[in-house]
Amino acid sequence: QLKSMYATGGMEITDDIIIGGKVISEDKEGNFYKSLVIQDNTAGINIKLNSTELYNFYKPGQIVYLKCKGLQLGGYAGLVEIGAIPTDNKYEADFIPDGVIGNYLFKGEKKEPVEPRALSIGTLHKSFEYTLIKLDEVQFISSELVLNYADTQSKEKPQNRTLIDKNGKKIIVRTSGCARFADEPLPKGSGSVTGILTYFNTTAQLTIISLNDVKLDNPRF
Q: What is the pLDDT of residue 156?
């Protein structure tokens, strides 16, 4: 319901709206930055926070509540996020300043982490954006097996790699050059990969939280 309120150009939330959900992201491995992704039974959303090492306070499974009044719904390449009212009109939503995060974000109970939704590349849909998903029977394309997850020399430029399934369907795996596993070689086998689904306009992208979520140990198909 909150995301459906978004209007092009961004929108300040003036109503007393509170959302709650479980944390599904973790910035310990560096592939998420100033970002806390939560989901409930209906959807997921990214909260833009001007703070790092969030994993020390918000672990996967932690329930959080966000007071939305005074914050901004903003769009980026087709994704709806929530953050502070921007001071630069180049952006539709800014990062919530560290000193006032506690005015908006509150911790609830610590629950079990979210179980990823098992999907196939062919069944992905924007309704699943910013939620935790698991893709089975996938592997990295042959032409990329000589590469690492990302180029650590280009820390400002995330790198795209490509997963493919048995039906020839493909999805981008997007990794920051700042990720701790950026210089790890891509695994050569097949299996499952778990991550958070995002979109760049209409293009689906998967962001891995850690290499523990990559289980490509089976023979290639």
A: 66
